[in-house]
Amino acid sequence: MAQLSSAARAELVPTGTLRVALNMSNFLLTRKDAATGAAAGVAVDMGRELARRLGVPVTFLQYESPGKIADAAKTGVFDVGFIGAEPQRANEMDFTAAYVEIEATYLVPPGSPLKSIDEVDRKGVRIAISERSAYDLYLTRTLKNAELVRMRGADEVFKRFVEDKLDALAGLRPRLLTDHAGLPGSRILDGNFTAVQQACGTPKGRQAGAQYLCEFIEDTKASGLVAKLIDVNNARGLTVAPKA
């Protein structure tokens, strides 16, 4: 791990406390303590480790979606955020390489004629999806024919998928396993349409800080810390991202 420069410290901790933005909609990386409402999970532990290396206290800011974090990047209210590194968000933040990946695919209802991921992108196919999720941004860029039907929150997406008889539900495979169990006869399609890259980012204009974050992420992957945090938090469905 490279030495922390005074410039990087000043950019990452301008207030003396590391302010970490968390995407609370990603249940694989974050969760709330039922009693206190405090955040926990892999992303929280990564934030604590970063603060430890910086030698500063840490505070966590909870956001309901990654899009809200990207929106807040210009306001100066946080110093680092743990979200999917999508190109659209890179307009507001500088990202590290991914530290974990999450496979995204489709759930289809009972009796669906759709057998493979490639078959989903057809005219007339309606796909339920969580708005402004990393996989929503990806499918918005890549789909040619199918229609995305956006809603907020995984529970609402599943409800609408069932009630409105939509043709497919796009999501992270671990969540789709839960939805599959709640809809007998449904199927999860093999493979994936993308692997969502979960990274660490800092608002634009903090070049030295961004470089330090890149080195931090690579070190935590290489040292086995990320793998350990996945195990400790029982975050099934996460895999350590490859070396950058």
Characterization of the model:
It is a single chain. Strands 1, 4, 5, 6, 7, 8, 9, 10, 11, 12 and 13 form an 11-stranded mixed beta sheet that branches. The chain has 2 domains: about 5-100 and about 195-240, D-Maltodextrin-Binding Protein, domain 2 (3-Layer(aba) Sandwich); about 105-195, Periplasmic binding protein-like II (D-Maltodextrin-Binding Protein, domain 2). The longest helix is centred in the C-terminal third of the chain and has 16 residues, at about 205-220. The protein is about 30% helix and about 25% strand. The model has no long low-confidence stretch (mean pLDDT about 95). The chain is built from 8 helices and 13 strands. It has helices at about 5-10, 40-55, 65-70, 135-140, 155-165, 175-180, 205-220, 225-230, and strands spanning about 20-25, 30, 40, 60-65, 80-85, 95, 100-110, 125-130, 145-150, 170, 185-190, 195-205, 240. The chain is elongated and about 60 Å long. It is an alpha/beta fold.
What are the salient characteristics of this protein?
D-Maltodextrin-Binding Protein, domain 2; 11-stranded mixed β-sheet; two-stranded antiparallel ribbon; single chain; 8 helices; alpha/beta
Q: What is the strand tally?
A: 13
Terminal residue distance? 15 Å
Oligomer: single chain
Helix count, DSSP H or I runs of 4 or more residues: 8
Task: Provide the number of structural domains.
Answer: 2
Q: Report the sheet with the most strands, covering strand number, pairing sense and barrel closure.
A: 11 strands, mixed
Report the C-alpha radius of gyration, rounded: 19 Å
Structural class determined from secondary elements: alpha/beta
* Relevant CATH superfamily of the largest domain: Periplasmic binding protein-like II
